[in-house]
Structures are given as structure tokens and as C-alpha cells.
Amino acid sequence: MKLLRNLLAATTVLGLVFVATAWRIVPSWLLTMLLIGLSGFVAATALAFLGKRAGYWLGMALAVTVLAISLPAPAHIFFLTSGRVLESGIFLVGNLLQIIYVAAFIRYILLRRRLSRGLSQPP
């Protein structure tokens, strides 16, 4: 749980950096979408730190959404190929955080399920 909370917090901080960087270069409709996404991460982080399971589930939904939108985006590939260090760094670190979150969340769910079935002890 602590890892998941920390990943959500790191994603939120990186999201703030991302929005601050994108503020002057993206169209207003895209900035609005970025702010909505950032608001979702702020909410997920707050809920997780308050001990609410909904925060972790919201974080999972947001992580999958970010990966689905971000990875195939041509502009993000352009950042990597054109040597734009700050933008590439945000893209790479952000997606890495999402991948780690998804893996940690799945691990947490499987462990919780295993413990609830009483299978925590080896046969």
C-alpha cells in the first residue's frame, strides 16, 4: 500500500511539472484535458493517503488511461527522436511510473486475494 501511495504521489508531482511545461505550448482544449487528468491523480492520491481503497482503484484506471493515450502519441515519439530532453524525460518517467503502478497494483490485488482465501501458508 505504501508503494502504491508513493507512486501516486510521485505521479501527481510529475503531473504538475508536466502541466507547467505544457502550459505554453499546447492548445487550450488539451490543457483542459491535462488539468482534468491531473485533478484525477490529485484525488486518487488524496484518497489513498486517507486510506480509502477507491484511491488505488482510481489510480489504476488513470494509469491505464495514461498509458493508452501516451504511448502511441506521435508527439511523444517526436520528443524522443528530436532530442527534447525535458519533454522526453517527463514522458519516459511518467510512463515508467504508470507501468510500475499497474504491476504493483496487480501484485497487491493478487496478494490480498490469496490472503483472503487462506492460501498464504505453503501446503
TrEMBL record:
Keyword flag Transmembrane: yes
Keywords from the UniProt entry: Membrane, Transmembrane, Transmembrane helix
Membrane-spanning segments: 32-50, 57-78, 90-110
Protein name (record): Uncharacterized protein
Species annotation: Caldiarchaeum subterraneum
Lineage of source species: Archaea, Nitrososphaerota, Candidatus Caldarchaeales, Candidatus Caldarchaeaceae, Candidatus Caldarchaeum
